[in-house]
């Protein structure tokens, strides 16, 4: 027996991609932080990001997914990443920001002298 799931079709220049469609949900909100970490702190920071920071963020209960992406540019000053935390609604993001952001910023201050970062708020389309 073959199960057929509802999907949305996304067209790119020369191809078509199908992904699961979520009828009951609004587009996800993505809290994206772009970070350039100095090379001498990179390995320790990446391990800490994966095993401490993102775990703490997920444990708040406001995020449903996280992702770390390496930015594919060659920089002498360091290595650049996009760290993404996805939540279901803007209300979830606002609640996280109000209840947990100061603690998360203090946690991240461990590497304050080793990185440059900026954050953007994105909406899935």
TrEMBL record:
InterPro entries: DUF4286. This is DUF4286 domain-containing protein.
């Amino acid at each position: 027996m073959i199960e057929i799931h509802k999907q949305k079709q996304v067209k790119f220049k020369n191809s078509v991609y199908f992904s699961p469609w979520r009828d009951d949900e609004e587009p996800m909100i993505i809290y994206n932080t772009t970070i350039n970490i100095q090379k001498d702190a990179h390995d320790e920071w990446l391990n800490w990001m994966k095993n401490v920071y993102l775990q703490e963020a997920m444990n708040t209960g406001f995020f449903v997914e996280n992702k770390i992406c390496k930015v594919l540019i060659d920089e002498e000053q360091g290595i650049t990443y996009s760290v993404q935390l996805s939540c279901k609604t803007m209300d979830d993001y606002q609640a996280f920001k109000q209840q947990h952001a100061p603690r998360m910023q203090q946690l991240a201050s461990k590497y304050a002298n080793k990185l440059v970062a900026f954050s953007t708020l994105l909406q899935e389309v």
